[in-house]
Design goal:
By secondary structure, the protein is an alpha+beta fold. The chain is built from 8 helices and 11 strands. InterPro entries: Bact_HTH_transcr_reg, Chorismate_lyase_/UTRA_dom_sf, Tscrpt_reg_HTH_GntR, UTRA, WH-like_DNA-bd_sf, WH_DNA-bd_sf.
Length: about 250
């Protein structure tokens, strides 16, 4: 089945969203007018209005009648909308990965079982993700041996303290034989352990979001298990839900 092309308003809202998240427009900065954006992107003003509507609903911009559209002030939390694997890949655009534990081969029966492996051997790494020098996420990743072997010598993951704008799924997409096609996700509320609280700068037992993601390639084979803990004071998670066209 051929995927439908992305709608013009969605492309525009994505472009504006990335500009805002990368800091091109500071808080309370007026965005270009509908006419300016329509001319620049060769779309109708109705398309621009639809894109603005999406950004308003996400809390990224606010519209003031007679004055224009402005970037909404934010309280320092990291805000990003996730609705596709591409959105997860885009984390590299405005955050940094700081390695805490380099990618190494080890035995982990539970992780191997979740990855549906016939062996107990996996590769594991852990890292913090930072936005504007503020850590907001602590992640541990487990990889099947064939994937781990391809990534083990990459400078982004091989040394403690390494800093890059990489994502593990981006590295898998680049170096594996088949690209990532989908992700299975579960979200729960948990209390911060001593280890997690130390890395995220929060208090022990403080409520956190735990997000488990299993990434699968185009043949449905698991290629990465990631378990992340997010600090709610520095992170906001939003997902857009659409009705099926069927």
């Amino acid at each position: 089945m051929t995927a439908r092309p992305e709608a013009a308003y969605a492309r525009l809202s994505r472009a504006l969203r990335e500009d805002i998240l990368r800091g091109r427009y500071d808080g309370d900065t007026r965005l270009p007018t509908e006419a300016e954006l329509a001319a620049k992107h060769k779309v109708s003003r109705q398309t621009v209005r639809r894109a603005f509507h999406d950004l308003v609903s996400e809390g990224l911009v606010r519209r003031i009648p007679g004055r224009g559209t402005y970037v909404a002030k934010r309280s320092g939390e990291y805000l990003r909308q996730f609705g596709s694997v591409e959105d997860l890949l885009a984390l590299s655009e405005d955050t940094e990965l700081v390695v805490l534990s380099p990618l190494r081969r080890l035995v982990d029966v539970e992780a191997a079982g979740r990855l549906r492996l016939s062996t107990d051997a996996v590769y594991r790494t852990s890292f913090r993700r930072v936005h504007q020098d503020e850590p907001f996420c602590l992640t541990t990743v487990w990889l099947p041996p064939d994937i781990g072997e391809r990534l083990a010598d990459l400078p982004e993951l091989r040394e403690t303290g390494a800093v890059s704008d990489a994502t593990v799924i981006g590295l898998i997409d680049k170096h594996a034989t088949r690209p990532i096609a989908e992700a299975e996700q579960s979200i729960t509320a948990v209390a911060a352990s001593d280890t997690v609280s130390e890395q995220l700068g929060c208090s022990p037992n403080e409520p956190l979001l735990r997000v488990d993601r299993m990434y699968l390639d185009t043949e449905g084979v698991p290629v990465e298990l990631a378990v992340s803990y997010f600090h709610p004071e520095h992170y906001s998670y939003r997902v857009r839900l659409r009705r099926s066209s069927a």
